[in-house]
Amino acid sequence: KLNMHVLYGRLHYETPGGLTQAQYEADEQQARPAAGHIPGAEDNKAAVNQEGLLAGVVYSYRLSAKWVNTTTLYGRFTRMDNPTIRNYSKVYQPGFGGRNSIRYVSRRGDALLQYVLGAEVQQGYSYEETYQNLLGKTGTLQQKNDVNNLNTSVFTQIAVGYGRLLATAGASLNLLRVDVTSHLPVYNDAHGIFNNEIAPRIAMSYRVADNMAIYTSAATGYSPPTTEELAPTGGIINL
Length: 239
What we know:
This protein is mainly beta.
């Protein structure tokens, strides 16, 4: 069985900014006005313009009556222009990844046994440039960062059920490697590896009725740092 999907999105919205109490009382519908030499949100055409493309294929192959192998390949690209009151940023984010899992399912009467083993690799890039905002147009380049991240995950899960009772136990192991290069305002190059210990999870459910179940679970999770956390505005790389 082969599935394919493509998603394209285009987004635009204006960001009028925040108001002081006095500005709000004067006109609660106004955009943030100019402050000294800094133009207001309307003058600088503060907004978010974003385009995104996501595409992938999923191929499932039944090896036997109880074994199924599923392979997924996908790619994405995001482009964002973000003029703000203080600056103008441009972000380009291509990426791709792949995932493979093998699943075993066995049923005998009211008994169920299911096992899953798989791995996933994600490669992402982020190219960020921050310019001076000249009334909605880019001026002098102020900051430039390149981020290269590689995320690898291995996971497994087993589920055992009998009648109305179902119990599951699983675990995952994650590895994230990040390379950050800051070109402006100062050159800086850094590498970081974020190892994650095994993250286990267990769950149990009991079907009280055909349309009602009681469910409980306990798990630990893994959340890698975001690009904005590793390469914040100012050019100082945070690992």
